Amino acid sequence: MIETLSLDPILYRNKYLCVYSAIEKYLQENNIIILSGFINFRLKSYMKLLDETIDLCVNTFLIEREYFEFINMLRMYINSKDSSIEHVHLVYVNSDSLLIDNDKNIIPLDKNVFNAKYLSDISFSNNDFCLNTLLTLIPLRLTIHLINSFEDEFINTLKLIFEDRVSICTDCDICHVYSVTHNVKS
Questions:
Q1: Which of 20, 32, 101, 126 has the lowest tally of Cβ within 10 angstroms?
Q2: CATH 3.30.420 residue spans of the chain
Q3: pTM for this one?
Q4: 15 to each of 1, 6, 34, 36, 50, how far by Cα in Å?
Q5: pLDDT in tens, 106-144
Q6: E-strand spans in 76-179?
Q7: Which CATH number fits domain 82-181: 1.20.120, 3.30.420, 3.30.10, 2.60.120?
């Protein structure tokens, strides 16, 4: 899932410093304050800071909305198609994924990007190919073996897409084999 917006503490502190310094400077030069004029003319930097914060919030909202629309579209897709495999194991080591079937055979990742000659400026990660393969196979069950016990954005996305088909594992025979193979300490 996309990280939610959190205001930068420095930005948050600057908001108060901006207002405080403007009031202090104004009162050193004047005995009275006309609030509407003060806000319109002396707090321009504060208003700019507010505009930037609002832009950041709106952009974050739009990105999150598009992300969840994409997730919902993928959910509808997998729920409308028949599964071609009962169970897939995703071994996730150091943010890299490997798919294996129930017989412990490696499932090759589908790296066909629809004649990608026109997508030369787009790079795809191994996880993109893994998701593409999972969407092709549409497993009835997906077990994610977290070798380094870390759920990142990719794992959270898989959990959102495949919902109740997903189970997380950190301690089984497969986990032990791949943790030894990759020298990952438990």
A1: 32
A2: 82-181
A3: 0.71
A4: 29, 15, 21, 18, 8
A5: 999 877 655 444 444 567 788 888 999 999 999 999 999
A6: 87-93, 96-100, 106-107, 141-146, 166-169
A7: 3.30.420
